[in-house]
């Protein structure tokens, strides 16, 4: 994965969302088809690894999104 970020928003009806890069910057759009686990809908705040692409000078898009375990998730799993 080239980048990591957290889901800022996701609209299940439209199948589109935004991910906020961990290193800062503007949120990046993605579509459900670019999720590696399409059956599971992303939740706000969930951490994903992703790559970016830019087509014909448009704003960057995130693709190849894969869920990642963040430090908070690992800590809660170790406690439980």
Automatic annotation (TrEMBL):
Residues 66-80 have a biased composition (Low complexity). Residues 1-80 are annotated as: Disordered. It comes from the Bacteria. This is Cold-shock protein. It comes from Erythrobacter mangrovi.
